[in-house]
Amino acid sequence: MSELTHSVTVRRLLPAQPARVFEAFSSAEALGRWFTPRPDISLEIRAFEFVPEGAFHFCFIMPGDERKAVAGRYERITPNDEIVFSWIWETPDPHADIPTRVRIQFRAHDGGTEVVLTHAQLPSEESSKRHGEGWTGMFEQLEAGFADPQFLRQAEARPETRPETRPETRDAAHA
Q1: pLDDT tens, position by position, for the chain (175 residues)?
Q2: Is 46 exposed, middle or buried (0-12, 13-18, 19+ CB in 10 A)?
Q3: Backbone angles phi, psi at 161, to 5 degrees
Q4: Is the dihedral angle over the CA atoms 28, 31, 32, 33 positive or is it negative?
Q5: Residue 103: which of 85, 121, 81 has the closest Cα?
Q6: Structural contact between residues 46 and 66, judged by C-beta atoms closer than 8 angstroms
């Protein structure tokens, strides 16, 4: 196996404040509105615990019902500033079982937000290219969402409908 030294960085300016952009990543309902690389792909959220050490498990459903699943854990969540998580594709993906790492930064910029996503520890140039295309497509979906004034409003109005989430927990030493 090759060394996991490849990475890709994707940047996007979005027309919303960092808190609003961060919110789009912080609930299953919000992610379900945009977190796909293309409009013809849907997202099945199998697990979503948006807390440090919380797990996620997503399945992308492609045209023709092809399914690609990915899972990981949130390593660090700093509200409105940064999210860091592992990203591991599942079989039969060609990059299955290779742990990679994603870091998303939110920076205030000219009344909006610059989002900087770095996906590291990728196994090859081909993998870097594939992930760069996927993340670029996701940011296009997110940007299109912010063009809709109702984007995220339903998630705000009904927080009890956020499936498979749990409130922030404390470590055992503080329990």
Answers
A1: 445 689 999 999 999 999 999 999 999 999 999 999 999 999 999 999 999 999 999 999 999 999 999 999 999 999 999 999 999 999 999 989 999 999 999 999 999 999 999 999 999 999 999 999 999 999 999 999 999 888 887 555 544 433 444 333 333 333 3
A2: middle
A3: -95, 5
A4: positive
A5: 85
A6: no
One-letter identity of residue 128? S
d(CA 44, CA 60): 6
**Where do we find the tokens 């404040």?**
17
Q: How many CA atoms lie within 13 A of 1 on its CB side?
A: 12
The C-alpha atoms of residue 11 and residue 107 are separated, in whole angstroms, by 11
User: How many Å is the Cα radius of gyration of the chain?
Assistant: 16
